[in-house]
Amino acid sequence: MTSRSRLLLGLSSSLLGLVLATEGCGKTSKNEGQGSGQESAGAGGQGGGGGTLAGGKGGAAGKSGEGGKGATGGGSGQGGASAGSGGSGGQKMLGCTGIPRPPSIPDDWIEYTGWDCMCPLYIPGNSKIRPPKIEWGPCDFKIPEHIKCQRTIKPGKGWMAAENRSAKDPKTGEFIFQTGFTDEIVDFLAQIKGSYGVIAKENGETISHFYQVTTDKCGMTASGLSSSNYIFRVDPMWDSSLEGAVAGNITDLLPNREMKFPSNPSLISSWRVTPSWIIRMRGDRTAYRWDDPEAPPKLVYTASMLGRTGHKVLSHNDDVFIQVGSIQSKGVAVWTEAGGTKPLILYPVATRSAFHFHTDGEHMVWSEMEGWNGDTLTFAVNEVFVAPYSLDQEQVSKSKKKLTNDLGVSGTNWHVGCGYAARGVSTENPSANSLMVVRLSDGWWWIVPGGDVTQPWRYDFDQPFGLTCEEVFVTTLLPSGAPTIARIRLDSLGPGMPPSE
Question: pLDDT tens digit string along 386-425?
Fold first, then answer.
């Protein structure tokens, strides 16, 4: 990843965050966010006793509502503590927030503040007024003429989240992706009033959608997507003592998990999801059950297991893969509930490294490198490998085959799908990421060049996050520094290059 894209990730935390929560400022029943009161009472009702959205009883005006039973087995939320005085509560009130309702939000959208009163989120619910659709148009940056490329152009200027995820729709098997955007921004560094977080179909229609008001009290970022669940990271802000995440099922109106932990500014948690697990990455890697919030977490990975630090986590179904080790000794471990943590691709220290691992459940793709040169910060050998999906280290070693040479250690992880793999690779100095695509059947490969760093129309292909049988989807940085999403047709890449020996 380029230094500019790292900067943009920081900028985009405030640009494209998202929180999911429940009405009435429900508090968690445990100090680690397990068993939160997901059905807490609404803010106080009109005339001193309003109904609820999700199960608890509305409080008399100016008094706390009675918490509803937690949807996931947790304790009751503290409902309606800031109901309107004199019984003037109701939909126009903001409960405990004190933050004015944005005039752009339809009256029948629901306000949720379950993470914190100062992090308001609006959800359309059953409203007929939906968030703007994501629209695609021709790529307006310089790219080889034969390549068929589209990028997001609306809402706003088509600027999207700097981190995006993809999965398959649990009902149809169609490609879906998780992103965020705002349609109120004029300049990339301008003050942002609020932003949408969405899970969308390939055609830009949204399955789930939310609107977060920008405040100085919370920062929310898309963090993970599986075929059934989503998760959004909650970052601690200036005066926050908590960090964590909010998660739920992509087809449900309400989230069903809130994770809260004491914050540590020097080490903020990252998160991933599987159909059965919420994975927390903060030092150790730990797994929390979706279906049992009261169950103690399971240890997925700690450095003492294989003698190497843990890094990125990804999953296929409930198989969890952990990239481990330092630059000369990188490898891949795998965790399952039944089998625990085991090495999958791992070599003796300082001999050979395995980088950039990814899998779609059919193929596993990674890069192997050896011959580290500390002066040039390069490896003498850079190779791309593929193997059939397996959780057995010996089987992976026996079945792997070289596809072609890689273009170096820099760049992003592979993304695998439908017989192809793609990743961002650094081909210039200072680096502007190009897009490398490899066909898994024969090692044939292509490069879609990034923009010339000396030109004002420079652009970077940063992280591929989706591959269908027709297109590759990649987070792309525009000349302005703003992230967009590009989609490039695989059949337009041209003749390509044969696999290297």
Answer: 999 999 999 999 999 999 999 888 888 999 999 999 999 8
110 alpha-carbon distance from chain centroid? 24
Location of structure tokens 């966010």: 33
Q: Is 213 exposed, middle or buried (0-12, 13-18, 19+ CB in 10 A)?
A: buried
Residue of 155, 163, 150, 255 whose CA lies nearest to 206: 155
Q: Region 338-347: what's the mean pLDDT? A: 97
Alpha carbon distances (Å) from 343 to 164, 198, 211, 286, 299? 28, 36, 41, 17, 15
Residues in contact with 270: Cβ distance below 8 Å, sequence separation at least 6, in sequence order? 223, 233, 280, 281, 282, 313
Q: Which of 76, 78, 88, 18 is nearest to 42 (CA)?
A: 78
Q: Is the peptide bond before 430 cis (omega within 30 degrees of 0)?
A: yes
- DSSP structural state of residue 397: H
Q: Residue 259: beta bridge partners?
A: 245
The pLDDT value recorded for residue 119 is 73
Which of 50-64, 91-105, 341-355, 449-463 comes out lowest in average pLDDT?
50-64
Buried residues in 267-283 as b, exposed as e (16+ CB within 10 A): ebbbbbbbebbbbbbee
DSSP 8-state assignment for residue 274: -
